[in-house]
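Team,

Forwarding the record for the chain on the shared tracking sheet. I've put the sequence and predicted structure together so nobody has to dig through attachments.
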Amino acid sequence: MSRRFIVVVALVVVCAGAELVAGRGMSPAAVVDVVTGGGGSTERHILLQLRLPRLLVALGAGACLGVAGLVLQSALRNPLAGPEVTGVTPGAVLGAVTATGLGLAGWESPLAVVVAACLGGCAGAALLWLLAGRGADDPAQTAVHGVLVSAVLGGLTAMVLLVAPGELGSVVQWLVGTTEGRVWQHWHLLWPWALFWTAAAWLLAGPLTLLRCGDEMASAAGLSTRGARRLALLCAVALTSGAVAAVGALGFVGLLVPHLAIAVFGADLRGSLPGAALVGALVVCGADAAAQLLSRLSATVLDAASLTVPVGALTTCAGAAVLLIVVRRTPDRTF
């Protein structure tokens, strides 16, 4: 294992520890007491049944989005491509919002919400595939059609909110992205899905590295660019759908993480794909810890005990800043 991987793993461990002690309702000393085998039943319940599954879901969702973003940017040869370009993120949000807003599912039934989000994500990807048609193998056309599909699905989500305005408080979590209220059932549903599709993406590391070099070079090396790109998009759709089903639409994580992973681990995707999973977990876990600290600070300073800062708000702000930097650095090229 390279020194860079060790450093990133250490940072993930530090952020995970920070998230476990950052929440409200339990002091850091009480967390240490429970970890060392002490603590009362209430403290053990908070740490083991609330904070720990929330931490694991944040790590898993971040890893999924990081790998999905790197797969998309490599397959489409576009540094500004994110999971949204497939239509799967707004599709998954539409599925979750529809199921929750119409009373078909709720936060007390994670399985129903996950199923609805996955169905919506697959529907969004299918809509993109039908719209692109023969141009599905053209990276530029796929990106353009993805923007159109995302806009349509976003409009449908707004219509659902108008139909069921009473459910706005619960469905807004899907629009922003949050780890609040995640329990062990969410983790048990997420990790097998994430493990399978991350392994599938890693098996495509070689073809994806060739696709980053251009279709002509990849074809000269004997790669079927059409088949490789379709398999890559399938992996990205599946990973994004699973993450959105677990935590909602975390803005710009799929855009932010690939650039960090390539900068740290290099352009060879055999190393940068696992690196993207680690960096994605680090980004979401760190953002969630910061969000909990801000919520705790607001409760103390502003006397707003009910105010909760969603992790999606922080990732969106960070991702927007990275987007501006990338656009300024690459104004005249697509990769």
